[in-house]
Design brief:
single chain, about 425 residues, alpha/beta, UDP-N-acetylmuramoyl-L-alanine:D-glutamate ligase, Protein-Tyrosine Phosphatase, Chain A, eight-stranded mixed beta sheet, 15 helices, 17 strands, globular
Amino acid sequence: MPMNYEEAIKYIKSTNSNGMVLGLERITNLLHYVGNPHKKLKFVHVAGTNGKGSTVSFLSHILESSSLKVGVYSSPALTDFTEIIKVNNKCISKEDVVKLTTLLQVAIKQMEKDELDLPTEFEITTVMSFLYFLSMDCDICLLEVGLGGLLDSTNVIDTCELAILTSISFDHVRVLGNTLTEIAKHKCGIIKDGVDVLTCDQDNEVLEVIEQEVRRKKARLHYSELPVGLKADSISLDGQTFTMNGMGTLKINLAGDYQIYNAALAISAAHILREKGYKGITTETIRQGLINCKWPCRFECISKKPVIVVDGGHNAKGIDVLVSSIYKHFKDKKIVFIMGVLADKDYMHMLNKVTPLAKEFVCITPPNPRALDAGNLSEIISKEYKLKAVPKDSLEEAVDYVLANTTDKDIIVAFGSLYYVGLIKNIFINRLKK
């Protein structure tokens, strides 16, 4: 009996029991059993701590506007598994997920018979993306690193058209190391011999590692172009405009003040790819791609009355830019925060940053085994910061509580783990329709 979509997802999730183990041996073996599809594709590889997803989204829209067929592998999904694999910004179909899962299941059973270590969930989905991109005859594929770079499953590729290093800061310190140098070394693992490498403004300690690895691999280092004046020309909750030398005024529909830097990084990537032979990329296709770009849950305003913003800020640097955006848009107004984080994140740094802006907290437990319990989070907030903090047992209860206890003049910001902000966004939207 053929499996259905729900059974396919259940099978993929069941491989979580294999654990999250860095390394390339398992995925290399799995790729061998399915014909090494990655060797027939062209890639842009993107690593970094923050800005990966937004940069990939900007670049994919630019390339699509340039008449290219563009595959994107980016995680985690906000609401449905299909979101992690896209071609021309259209999610993989559930039918294709079933078909590819069936093929991969056969390969994994053979690996088991051959007494090989079995692949993890992320390794399976990475191989699924390669198979799908090949079947769709993609011109170029954008790969977002899952964790680190050097030993991440996506680093199984032999080479790439361009390696992009977005902002690198502290995250996943238990796995990647507790210094910026150690973390940067992992991220720089995506730099292959002789490739083009693009990076942005980085801490000096990080930049030293990047430059050293570029020299070692005889690669070519490029630095991102920057907006004129290093700031937006105009901002609103619906988007912003900024100026780039030689391109005039550009518009994006993302509100976070850091997004102009992500857009500039994507523009620089597009210019490099054009020089490498992707001639369909023009100033006009870049302009149009930026306008077309949508990237949910990154300082996304989903309601004006009351103002409701959802943001996937889940580490120290992410919270810094969230707070900067809040100050820019809401100045001295107090915020009702909905907060849910993973226990292995630096949530005390997050609280130190957001509590001065807070009117009240509603705490939830993200649907993830690594989540910090809502009760524990609310206890920390009330004891350490003397602020009202209400724990809720479900996302629905959190939304209902907030809507019942705020007015149209309030500002609500839901932030933290991407494992919950996409879900809570949809709950808010459905409640506000009633």
